[in-house]
Amino acid sequence: MLGKCRSKQLAFAMTPSTAPPYAVADPQVEVLDEMSARLSATFEGPPGSSVIGRAWISDADGTLVDGETGEIPAGSQAAMLLTIPESKAQNGNLIACLRVEWPLFQTKHVILCTLIEGKLLHPPKGKEC
């Protein structure tokens, strides 16, 4: 599924959910094999606070796999290894997403990109995460 994606650079843009000083900074997607990718970023928040980082890969049908950092200090860099279960069939372009939230499930900033034919494209085409 992911085998054609070789670029490690990720283009991103602020979304309406942005709430400074929260931000997903220095995002990277590293495709490891056809089913696995490492998504990493620095998860920013107010000095001295905690944040939660999340990453997921979706297609036109919804989320295929997701992960989270748990509670980490704001400004921490974290990576999440995501492996798409073999039982899930890809429907359309894959979308890689990263977000920072605090408290749990209160999204502050989201970035996403479409993974297609060896390129990372933004904005995504098809269903958003």
Major β-sheet, in short? 5 strands, antiparallel
Q: Tell me the CATH superfamily.
A: Immunoglobulins
The CATH class name reads: Mainly Beta
The gyration radius over C-alpha positions equals: 14 Å
Low-confidence runs of at least 5 consecutive residues: 3-17, 117-129
Span of the ends, CA to CA: 18 Å
Class per helix and strand makeup: mainly beta
Q: Which topology does CATH recognise?
A: Immunoglobulin-like
Please tell me the CATH architecture by its name: Sandwich
Number of discrete helical segments: 0
Q: What's the mean pLDDT score?
A: 77
Oligomer: single chain
Q: State the helicity in percent bands.
A: under 10%
- Summed up, the domain count is 1
Polypeptide structure, described:
With 129 residues, the protein is mainly beta. It has strands spanning 23-31, 36-44, 50-59, 62-73, 76-83, 94-101, 107-116, 119-121. The strands form 2 sheets. It has a 5-stranded antiparallel β-sheet, with no helix packed on it. A hairpin with a 5-residue loop joins strand 6 (94-101) and strand 7. The model is unreliable at 3-17 and 117-129 (pLDDT under 50).
What are the salient characteristics of this protein?
Immunoglobulin-like; 5-stranded antiparallel β-sheet
